[in-house]
Specification:
The chain is α+β, with helices and mostly antiparallel strands. The chain is built from nine helices and 13 strands. It folds into two domains: 4-145, Gcn5-related N-acetyltransferase (GNAT) (Aminopeptidase); 153-337, 3-Layer(aba) Sandwich (Aminopeptidase). GO terms for molecular function: acyltransferase activity, transferring groups other than amino-acyl groups.
Length: 344
């Protein structure tokens, strides 16, 4: 192998590299490939869009032909670390190219804007990446000093995996109603302020290991519940409503929200039994037992007739408590390898 040269990314490099690299070796590499682009200093505001993010991208050439590339860039939603990704053509691996690209990218982080340094606590920000367990990328990350920050799994829960719970009591219990005026299970518009607030706080709570930027209700709605995000519908589980004037007086407000399930696909086909992608979570102020009970009950409901597909992070304690026993009994299955978020 001749002496390699390194230069900034140029327009058209993607066509050359993708032809040489072939298909991506997993979902994470496929996603990261979209980050390769010319260097950018980002926007001046504190929450730049992905297209306007600060970014440095380097290409390695062998006799004038691009064979590898690396990119480091900011993410507005998780500003404490920078994302980094390196890919090397298969026939050029184990030659130190990836290590050299990573070294050069680390050097480039010394000139980050003040907003990035401030979000990182001052100084040079640390790095993070995503790899699939058992992959070449995972081995490279470990050899480069990256440790595990979070583990994530895609899990499909089969129909009827959990016994359908009885919500409330009385004549309406079998339908999920506590009484005629206070439903415990409710279809809720994805534009609901109550739902957007609950989803935003839940996201922040399960990402304490990589703290997100402040999430307003509007921002949470845009990211997780809008048409652009692919949100199709939502169902929530509520606590029984309680009247401020005693048991003999009908409550004027609905019970507090305990858990939510947001669908990101159309209704599953009964013939094809295609799972619907669902974000499952709970009100973060619930105690551990209540959160687990609410999540388990709502999962049983949404997966009663059709399979659902969940992303289960290790930080999602209540969701794991519902899903892990199903994996053990075979009524749920993991799809693909684990995704590992790693950082230096």
């Amino acid at each position: 192998m001749a002496q390699l040269t390194y230069r900034p990314w140029r327009e058209g490099d993607d066509r050359t590299l993708l032809q040489l690299w072939g298909d991506a070796e997993g979902a994470s590499p496929a996603q990261f490939r979209g980050a390769f682009a010319p260097d950018s200093d980002g926007a001046d505001d504190a929450a730049p869009s992905p297209a306007a993010a600060w970014r440095r991208c380097i290409v390695a050439e062998d006799q004038g032909i691009p064979v590898a590339a690396g990119v480091v860039y900011e993410a507005a939603l998780h500003p404490a670390r920078l994302w980094v990704y390196v890919e090397v053509a298969r026939d050029h691996r184990r030659a130190g190219i990836g290590t050299e690209l990573l070294r050069r990218l680390r050097e480039r982080t010394a000139d980050v804007p003040a907003r990035i340094a401030a979000a990182a606590g001052g100084g040079v920000p640390r790095l993070r990446s995503k790899v699939e367990a058992g992959s070449a990328g995972a081995a490279f990350a470990e050899a480069s000093g990256f440790g595990l920050l979070q583990r994530s799994r895609e899990v499909v829960v089969r129909p009827g995996a959990l016994k359908l719970p009885v919500f409330g009591d009385g004549p309406a219990a079998e339908t999920g109603l506590g009484d005629d005026t206070s439903p415990l299970v409710e279809d809720l518009a994805t534009g609901s302020v109550e739902l957007s607030d609950a989803v935003g706080r839940y996201y922040a709570a399960v990402h304490e290991w990589d703290p997100p930027a402040a999430l307003s209700v509007g921002r949470a709605q845009q990211l997780f519940l809008s048409d652009a995000a692919g949100a199709h519908g939502a169902v929530v589980l509520r606590a029984p409503a309680v009247s401020a004037f005693g048991a003999g007086v009908a409550p004027s407000k609905k019970g507090r929200l305990r858990a939510f399930a947001v669908s990101y696909a159309g209704p599953a086909s009964a013939a094809a039994e295609q799972p619907s992608e669902v974000l499952l979570g709970h009100e973060v102020r619930l105690d551990r037992a209540d959160a687990q009970d609410a999540v388990r009950g709502l999962l049983a409901l949404v997966a009663y007739q059709h399979p659902v597909r969940l992303e289960v992070d290790d930080s999602m304690a209540a969701v794991r408590a519902a899903v892990d026993p199903l994996l053990e009994t075979g009524t749920a299955e993991q799809v693909g390898p684990e995704t590992l978020t790693v950082g230096d």
